[in-house]
Design goal:
Elements: E1 2-5, H1 13-21, H2 29-48, E2 53-60, E3 63-70, E4 74-80, H3 84-93, E5 98-108, E6 114-122, E7 130-134, E8 137-138, H4 142-154, E9 161-165, E10 168-170, H5 171-180, E11 185-189, E12 191-193, E13 195-196, E14 202-203, H6 209-214
Helix pairs in contact: 1-2, 2-3
Length: about 220
C-alpha cells in the first residue's frame, strides 16, 4: 500500500484541516461540513492525477478541440455519518462517479475491547472500476478494513484499484492498513497523529466528526 500525506506540503488544504480541528470553529456545524467538502474537493483533484486518460474531440462553436479527459470508472463510497460531506466534496469534482454507502460502528465488549460491525451497505458493481472510500478520521484502520470487505461482498467482487481517503488518521491506523492492504491501494491523508487514548480515540484528532457535522445523537 502506498501512503500519500498531502499535509506535508504547504497548501490551502492545511487551513481547512486546521479549522476542522479548531474547537472554536467547530461550533459552527455548517462551517465544519463545508470544510469537509473542501477537503474532499482537494483530495479528488489530487487523485484525478492518478487516473487513466485519453484524448477526445470536443466540438466548440468555432471548431474542434482535442482534450485529454479521464476514462477511469469511479465509485465513491463513504462511511456514514461523518463521511457524507467529504464524499459530497469529491462528487463535486467527480460528478459522473457512482456512489456507495455503508454503516460501520464500534461494538464494545468488556473493557476497551471492541469489534467493528458493518450492518448496512449499498453499492454498484465494483469489478473493473476504481473505488474511492472516504472516511473522515481513522483511529485503528479497522472501519476501513471491515468496510471494504462489506463493499466487496455487496459489490460482487473487488475493484481494480482502491483509494482510501482519511484526512486525519493515526500512526496505528496507517501501520495496520499497511499490513492488511495490497499493492493496488493508496491511502491519502492530510495529518497523521501519533497518540491514541485507552479507548482508541485519536489525539489531538478532531473529535466526533459526525456529531460536529450533524449534531448529537442518543
Amino acid at each position: 500500500m502506498k501512503v500519500i500525506n498531502l499535509g506535508e506540503s504547504n497548501s490551502v488544504l492545511n487551513t481547512f484541516i486546521a479549522e476542522l480541528r479548531d474547537i472554536r470553529i467547530q461550533k459552527d456545524s455548517m462551517r465544519f461540513r463545508r470544510n469537509l467538502e473542501r477537503v474532499g474537493e482537494v483530495f479528488a483533484y489530487e487523485i484525478s492525477k492518478h487516473l487513466s486518460y485519453s484524448e477526445k474531440e470536443v466540438t466548440t462553436p468555432l471548431g474542434i478541440a482535442t482534450v485529454s479527459t479521464p476514462d477511469t470508472p469511479l465509485v465513491i463510497g463513504t462511511i456514514l455519518r461523518a463521511g457524507l460531506p467529504l464524499q459530497t466534496g469529491m462528487l463535486n469534482v467527480f460528478d459522473h462517479a457512482e456512489t456507495a454507502f455503508l454503516v460501520a460502528f464500534r461494538k464494545y465488549g468488556k473493557g476497551d475491547y471492541f469489534k467493528i460491525k458493518a450492518n448496512y451497505c449499498t453499492t454498484p458493481a465494483l469489478e473493473g472500476k476504481t473505488l474511492i472510500l472516504a472516511d473522515t478520521m481513522s483511529a485503528t484502520g479497522s472501519s476501513v478494513e471491515v468496510g471494504l470487505q462489506k463493499l466487496f461482498e455487496q459489490g460482487g467482487g473487488e475493484p481494480d484499484y482502491i483509494h482510501i481517503v482519511c484526512p486525519v488518521t493515526s500512526t496505528y491506523a496507517v501501520d495496520h492498513l499497511k499490513q492488511t492492504m495490497g499493492d493496488n491501494v493508496t491511502l491519502w491523508v492530510a495529518a497523521i497523529d501519533e497518540e491514541l487514548t485507552s479507548h482508541f480515540f485519536v489525539i489531538p484528532g478532531i473529535g466526533d466528526a459526525g456529531d460536529l457535522a450533524f449534531g448529537g445523537k442518543l
